[in-house]
Amino acid sequence: MKGIVTTAPAQPQGGGRKILLDLVFTLLIPIAILSPNLLGSGFSFSESVFGGGVTGNVRSYVLAALVPVAYVLVDLLLNKRVSPIAIFAGTSALVGGALAFWFVDGWQYALKDSARSILVGVAAVLSVFVGYPLFRIFVDVTSLGAKPDEQRALTTVFSNGVVKRALGLGTFIFAAVELVSAAVNFFVNLRIVTSKFGTNAFNAEVASANAVMRVPALALSLIGFGIAYWLIQQAVTAQYGKGANIFEPAQLAEKLRETPPA
């Protein structure tokens, strides 16, 4: 009984700790680095760490942009996770790292800050037209370690006409949500970030825009992913019965052996 009591809450605590770390490294630390007056203390990374002026502001901006990139990549390497969310996060981190060195302001900054969602949305749409929807790529990557019979089960399922249509529709919905997120983010940044790049005001405005948009943008991405997954999984369940899961190849293979498609 004591073992049950102590281990039961362990997973929620771990999950909560992970979410807290995500928020600290992708939101709170970057905002702190960009702040010209951290919590009213008068401390500024730009002034106190990097010497102030344009150079200090630029270095603070780059550091704030690269902290989330480094955190996501280190997290992926340490945990060796291969999941759709991990793939998505890793790709986003690489795009963010590359764009950190594009020093722009005004509408160009708003576009730059929205580029990840735009690229994901466009790539998702194109993937459907070339006949290999983005969600199929997600599943294929997550199943790299699957056994041959499990790989064959996935191929069989994705060859089913109903499932193929659901894959395309789900990917389109995911793309639409990403593009809506990009549009919202663009206009929020266009309204908030109005100062010239390399100034204290610019960094402060970037911090404000991040505080406003980071969580809603993440929520929108998860909603898009969730709707797409639900549509695809509904199609799989309708064709192969309850228990057939595209992200559980072993379970899917077993289900296909038991139940022919509807």
From TrEMBL:
<protein>
    <recommendedName>
        <fullName>MFS transporter</fullName>
    </recommendedName>
</protein>
<feature type="transmembrane region" description="Helical">
    <location>
        <begin position="20"/>
        <end position="38"/>
    </location>
</feature>
<keyword id="KW-1133">Transmembrane helix</keyword>
<feature type="transmembrane region" description="Helical">
    <location>
        <begin position="211"/>
        <end position="232"/>
    </location>
</feature>
<keyword id="KW-0812">Transmembrane</keyword>
<keyword id="KW-0472">Membrane</keyword>
<feature type="transmembrane region" description="Helical">
    <location>
        <begin position="116"/>
        <end position="135"/>
    </location>
</feature>
<feature type="transmembrane region" description="Helical">
    <location>
        <begin position="85"/>
        <end position="104"/>
    </location>
</feature>
<feature type="transmembrane region" description="Helical">
    <location>
        <begin position="58"/>
        <end position="78"/>
    </location>
</feature>
<feature type="transmembrane region" description="Helical">
    <location>
        <begin position="166"/>
        <end position="188"/>
    </location>
</feature>
